Backbone:
């Protein structure tokens, strides 16, 4: 067999097909490792036939001599065994490599943590480095940056030796007008990346390094072809158009969809609240799908927790406001009325509350926040909420301030919980219980109230025509809850 070292020359005088023991052993080796060719198989078959001719008497035939099928089976079994052993060896090698890497990493950690002064000096070297120096800049990249990925909408920097191996920043955040050239860059919001072996605590200095890195990288590598102002203007224009279309689309739906005629005041009110809600849901769904579901709507999330939080907060908010005004003698409950289908009136008020929250703190809020910043989202949502309660402007500055602070209060709850559930519950308790039950909050004129609340004294305390919603006590309550939830949100972010 050519190429295998088996010589086809004559082996003896009777048959040239008889192989030597060395050649048979070579064939068996090829069978065991799966490399036996068709030519080799044919040669071995001829060898067997030649051996049979030499031993015509069956009693003299060596039964231990394997036939062709036995060679095949033997080769298959040996091949399978070798494959299994090879795979197991590969697995063991991978485990060995992983263990060696882990041991090496731990050795590095231990060696680094042994000398805090060296570590301090190492970070100080880059903390006060001049990133305008090309040599220093190259060192910063070499020591801290592994890879930089550029996408259409964001920049991703992969860092060396970081527990959070990637830092992301969108072009929107990069071009933030107020923060673009300041140390409060969105790139490093939340503090520096921490090394868990660092003996001096959080490596906050790395945040400053990243700011310097960002500036140098931005100026020298990325942004020389991009016009910051043009980019920002395009973003502002896009967000503005979406906001206008969303709000106008909702208003058109509300105005063109007729309310069914009915003799029942409560049923008519139910439809009058349901149609705007269905309209805002439909508009939200259209825009959400158009954005390819990129905008998180925050409609759900920990429902039980948020319902309880909203219930407790709303009860304290309304209860404390009415309680303080009652102690001051400004408001009194003097009578009770009979209301047919009270539950349906409350349901209508609930639908109205859901509609308001989805309109001002649903898609629009999250879209503006995602494409611009939270400040712009708060301004727009608060403006829409105030516009929807335009009657407050006729009553004076204090009712307007109450509407504004109430909107900010609901937004703070949304940011703290990450869900619209709690703001909806709080808002409903104020409207439903405060208006329909107590009669101290202004809703649409056709809404009834179970109790008769009378208001006395100075309008600054009593609220005048706006009832308790125009009271300075409510303003103080709004500010107190606003400050409380903002502080809770900051504390929550720090603990993450």
Residues:
């Amino acid at each position: 067999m050519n190429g295998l070292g088996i010589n086809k020359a004559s082996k003896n005088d009777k048959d040239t097909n008889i192989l030597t023991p060395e050649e048979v052993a070579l064939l068996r080796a090829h069978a065991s490792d799966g490399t036996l060719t068709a030519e080799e198989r044919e040669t071995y078959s001829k060898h067997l036939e030649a051996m049979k001719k030499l031993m015509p008497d069956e009693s003299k035939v060596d039964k231990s001599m394997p036939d062709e099928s036995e060679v095949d089976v033997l080769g298959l079994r040996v091949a399978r065994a070798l494959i299994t052993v090879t795979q197991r060896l590969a697995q063991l090698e991978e485990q060995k490599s992983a263990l060696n890497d882990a041991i090496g990493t731990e050795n590095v950690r231990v060696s680094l943590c042994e000398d805090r002064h060296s570590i301090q000096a190492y970070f100080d070297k880059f903390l006060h480095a001049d990133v305008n120096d090309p040599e220093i800049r190259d060192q910063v990249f070499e020591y801290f940056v592994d890879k930089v990925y550029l996408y259409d909408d964001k920049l991703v920097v992969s860092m060396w030796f970081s527990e959070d191996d990637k830092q992301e920043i969108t072009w929107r955040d990069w071009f933030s007008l107020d923060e673009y050239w300041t140390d409060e860059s969105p790139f490093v919001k939340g503090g520096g990346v921490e090394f868990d072996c660092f003996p001096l605590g959080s490596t906050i200095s790395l945040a400053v390094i990243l700011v310097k890195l960002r500036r140098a990288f931005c100026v020298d590598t990325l942004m020389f072809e991009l016009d910051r102002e043009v980019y920002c203007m395009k973003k502002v224009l896009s967000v503005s158009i979406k906001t206008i279309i969303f709000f106008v689309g909702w208003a058109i739906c509300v105005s063109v969809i007729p309310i069914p005629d009915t003799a029942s005041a409560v049923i008519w009110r139910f439809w009058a609240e349901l149609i705007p809600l269905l309209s805002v849901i439909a508009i939200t769904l259209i825009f959400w799908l158009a954005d390819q579901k990129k905008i998180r709507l925050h409609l759900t999330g920990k429902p039980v927790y948020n319902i309880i939080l909203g219930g407790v907060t709303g009860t304290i908010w309304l209860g404390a406001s009415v309680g303080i005004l009652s102690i001051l003698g400004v408001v009194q409950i003097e009578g009770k009325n009979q209301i047919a289908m009270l539950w349906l009136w409350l349901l209508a008020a609930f639908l109205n509350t859901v509609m308001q929250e989805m309109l001002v703190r649903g898609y629009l809020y999250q879209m503006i926040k995602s494409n611009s910043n939270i400040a712009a989202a708060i301004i727009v949502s608060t403006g829409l909420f105030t516009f929807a309660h335009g009657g407050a402007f006729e009553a004076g500055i204090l009712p307007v301030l109450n509407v504004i602070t109430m909107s900010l209060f609901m937004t703070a709850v949304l940011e703290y919980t990450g869900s619209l559930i709690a703001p909806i519950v709080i808002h409903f308790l104020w409207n439903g219980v405060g208006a329909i039950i107590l009669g101290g909050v202004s809703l649409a004129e056709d809404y009834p109230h179970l109790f008769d609340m009378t208001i006395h004294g100075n309008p600054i305390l009593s609220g005048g025509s706006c009832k308790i919603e125009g009271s300075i006590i409510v303003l103080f309550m709004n500010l107190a809850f606003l400050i409380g939830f903002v502080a809770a949100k900051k504390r929550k972010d720090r603990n993450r």
